[in-house]
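Appendix B, example 12.
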Amino acid sequence: MNFIKSLFSQSNPQQKKIAHKKAVESSILDTQFTQVRLQDIKIISKDLKKLEEILKYQPETINEQFKRCYSFHIILSSDLLQSIEKIVQYFENYQQNLCKQKFQITQSKTLATQNVNQTNIYTNEQQTFSIQYQNSMFLNVSDQIQLFEQINQNENGFMNIYFNYIQRITQNNDIYTSCRFQQYPIQDDAHNRKLQFLWLFKIINLLNFKLSFIPYFQLNFKHKTQNTLIIRDIAYLVYKDCLVEYSFLRNEITDMLESYSSFQIRESLQFYELILIMKDVTYKMKIFYDMRSSFALNSASVRDVKWFTIEKKQMIEIDNYISKIKLLNTSQFKKSLMVPTRNYVMQNLSKQSQDTNSLDNSFKKEPITAKNKKKSNDLLYSPLKLNQYKGGEHSRQ
């Protein structure tokens, strides 16, 4: 009886091949999947050989490019050091070749030409309609084609900057990893402000680069395509990165508000610049936060954000303090320029006169006394001297 059951339970060889093929296939490289399964990313992150195959694979479609970069992004945000080093090493070795890679858009061009051909056939068949209706149809078709090209350019443009972002993560992996632990890449016991500001500005650069994705997300969520699902997954992952870096910046700059008056001049100016940048970053982050229902399946999973805020009174005090520092800084800067003022010119003249006096002193002179001074005046204004001057005048006549 069991033997008979086993015969009926056995599947044919074709079904076994299909089942085996499905088990081997990965959603990262399979064109049938528009998204990536997390279990497939876990497999390649633990198996370095499979990860190397994904790294060497040259994607043919934009969907494969999205899925490939998304997989790298998840691994880089994990704690798997060997897999992260593998990806970092790959981007270091092949960065130049990958930057020059041209993403293929042949498929989108063929789809655009097919739409144009279909609309031309449709207008030829509708010869009985009026000329006004034909013109309106032509305008509608041209608008559709223009919109299709705009969406296609938007996805290609976003793919380029998203790939560039993965490169930036590999180049600044120390900053990217340390922010997840809410600490600086290098712990400085001496509290070096110069080094601290350097890390903060680098984190702001990474955060601002991610916030530039917002217009691409807005257009894609408005006009859905076959890549919308994977772009939503990417948006959720990018948003989590933004939250981590924003919270770290907010905490650090908020702590500085209590002690900024003890900073040096250059440090105070850098701190003021950080405040102005954080205001702009907060505005962009609120736009991203309001979009969370478009890329998160459950908006409750996206936690509330503690925003960076400064009271109006405190901001006025900081503005006044920085304005005084700027005036002080400009005065010190002017002194360092050695501007040729009147005193400076007089000092140079006195030096030159001292040099000429030293030359004159090389010749023998009588000492200047009251007796010698009177003698010289008598000789200068004596009658004999005056007669000589008058005789000279008559001789001219």
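The two ends are 162 Å apart (CA to CA). Residues 91 and 167 are 7 Å apart (CA to CA).
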